[in-house]
Inverse folding.
């Protein structure tokens, strides 16, 4: 094979990055791959002028591209669900390897798509779907293959991390920063996927499968967004020596896995707490290696293209050897995936940050402490803040030790029922890695 | 193939880690590799009781192991040069794949050994040689294959980083911390390799080759150790918002590469500045992906074993496909390596931290400033510290902007020739990534 011939579906940000980087670095890439990697056709609803299309055929018909006998690999770079799934299935059925940057597709339909790819002996690669340019899928599937992975925890949504960083550094509130992120193009017009943790849960579901060798279970993931976070809580966290990050956390237990995305306090001395702005990072804890961390840009045209092209180079190297599927899709051989259920969020163990609004009344702290103690919850520290003059309500901030979430929920219900407590108790989980 | 059969040379810390992890995680590892990976024989001068040798043949004869027809892969885990080189050559000549954790061997004899392995169509893998358990060779050779790599900078010696962290955190001096590191087993009885930057230069030479696609050039690396660092300079750096790290830096230019290991001030806000203790981290700057960083334990029995076994899993996956050498040894096809010379240290560009001891005399700063200005060196900031009473000498600390090293050397010679300047000028390079 003198050239791996690629057909790209879509001509958006990532696709143009792939075309531009493949052209700019063609000498380096072919020296690494052992053959040149050439985009021969692009299918998109419309032509754009964001990249050099010289030598690349253009069509508005995806079917034409998928049926193009010249093409070895289809890169699905349009995103979304239905059409993307259709493309991947047709491409595999046509005997073409597939590379995608589509985390939603893999997280929600990966089990079915990998089974199809496996039955055809074809690659279905998705490095670009998780943490953009960071080769973390490769690290888990190959670099850490000696390990039982205990835990994966990551900042895997750049938009959310940008918003939290601005809130911390500049004291701005959520809505204000979100509007700026939308203006900068970091956040979509509908920011739900990013700020409510759905995008992060897609990536986390994939990371968990590859880390633990379990089927994809996105639908079981717990998600809690950052739209309810106040600058008051972010500032309190800072004062306590913590940072608030929107983390995806997957942890393996003998009887099941945790799969959860939520705002989390982490001690500021930890590397993960220092990952700011739109950057992503994934911390992996393995039984042999201990903790390793992978940091880099989680999005962007050429950063994502870097991962797409790395998958294409893998395909080229493997196709040259006539053995395309060397590395199993989810890290373990398909018949060795282990069915481990996702644990309900009420069963996880966590420490907590709590903020209560209490009447300035002697004995309130005693009542709260007594509820906690009766619930088997140890309080690590309490900060009683200055009275807010206008309504005579005192913010009471506390950190607890680790406890099962169901106990914390029950204790909070009792605390909220106290007549001296006003409104809801703010609760943010606290993790140390 | 039902099993990949491994023979291990050596029975030290890393070898026992490999044996223990392969046994403990045999289910996970075989599910990932597609076959079981079994150590069938160990050759060592003497038996030890640091691992479970059940089912593993023991010999004191390395030749017996290398001639064992049952063995598919030889793991060279004895370290050092001559014997290790001999083992690798004999194993390759006997048709066996080789996995090694020996950075010195690869850095100094890799060009010759890779040529031999290539001529035999055999794997010679060395992930464990660089940054211990961090899969950074895989990241460079595969995960970032789309990129022109501009720069690699790393904390790649855990002993040195432990010493610098202790000096910063506790104000202890170098000799004191080194003695503790030796007692803890982090540092060798002869610490030269670690503290003078030779070990880091071995790893950096390998990283540079893989990053830039150039032959190994360890002998051309510039090294400057940390044994001359004083707590005074480390404290000054902290006060200026920097951390002092013993960095390996490789940078690619059109006409050559930088390859240098030396103490370096980096702004404390950068992630690399926050890598403390025995941990390692490697920052990679690629033209498409931007900056990515890989963090983890750079040494230790099971952390290093994690990388050795990952290489064995790669061999198993590839051997099962009858195409062992999928990924070229140094990331690019052997005939595509580019000869790029290592630039002399005098040609690099750097900013500098300088500390002068000056007589308390009006006009000293003016004289120094004038020398700098005449040399084309811009001063970024100056701190004139309190007089040290006993000898009436004032420490003068300054940060310069970026300048060519040869100009800085010439300027320092002129400054040291001033009658008001006592002793040598302390000079530490400053980098921002």
């Amino acid at each position: 094979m003198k050239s791996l011939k690629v057909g790209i579906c879509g001509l958006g940000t990532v696709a143009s990055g792939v075309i531009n980087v493949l052209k700019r670095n063609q000498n380096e890439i072919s020296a690494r791959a052992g053959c040149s990697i050439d985009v021969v056709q692009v299918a998109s609803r419309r032509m754009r002028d964001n990249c050099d299309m010289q030598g690349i055929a253009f069509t508005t018909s995806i079917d034409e591209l998928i049926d193009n006998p010249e093409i070895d690999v289809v890169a699905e770079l349009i995103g979304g669900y239905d059409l993307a799934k259709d493309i991947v299935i047709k491409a595999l059925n046509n005997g073409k390897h597939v590379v995608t940057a589509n985390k939603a597709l893999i997280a929600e339909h990966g089990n079915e798509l990998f089974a199809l790819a496996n039955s055809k002996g074809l690659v279905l690669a998705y490095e670009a779907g998780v943490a953009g340019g960071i080769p973390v899928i490769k690290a888990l599937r190959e670099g850490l293959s000696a390990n039982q992975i205990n835990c994966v925890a990551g900042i895997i949504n750049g938009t959310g991390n940008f918003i939290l960083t601005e809130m911390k550094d500049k004291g701005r509130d959520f809505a204000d920063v979100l509007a700026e992120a939308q203006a900068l193009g970091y956040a979509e017009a509908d920011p739900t996927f990013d700020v409510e943790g759905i995008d992060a849960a897609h990536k986390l579901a994939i990371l968990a499968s590859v880390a633990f060798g379990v089927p994809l279970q996105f639908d079981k993931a717990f998600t809690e967004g950052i739209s309810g976070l106040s600058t008051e809580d972010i500032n309190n966290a800072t004062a306590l020596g913590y940072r608030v990050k929107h983390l995806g956390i997957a942890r393996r237990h003998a009887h099941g896995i945790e799969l959860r995305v939520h705002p989390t306090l982490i001690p500021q001395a930890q590397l993960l707490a220092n990952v700011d702005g739109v950057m992503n990072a994934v911390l992996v804890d393995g039984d042999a290696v201990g903790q390793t961390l992978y940091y880099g840009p989680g999005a962007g045209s050429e950063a994502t293209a870097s991962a797409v092209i790395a998958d294409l180079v893998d395909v080229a190297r493997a196709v040259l050897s006539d053995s395309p599927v060397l590395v199993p899709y989810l890290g373990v051989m398909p018949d060795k995936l282990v069915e481990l259920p996702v644990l309900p969020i009420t069963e996880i163990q966590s420490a907590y940050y709590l903020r209560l609004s209490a009447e300035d009344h002697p004995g309130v702290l005693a009542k709260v402490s007594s509820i906690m103690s009766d619930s088997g919850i140890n309080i690590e520290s309490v900060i009683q803040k200055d009275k807010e003059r206008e309504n005579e309500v005192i913010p009471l901030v506390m950190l607890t030790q680790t406890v099962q979430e169901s106990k914390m929920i029950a204790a909070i219900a009792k605390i909220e029922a106290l007549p001296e407590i006003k409104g809801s108790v703010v609760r943010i989980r606290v993790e140390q890695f």
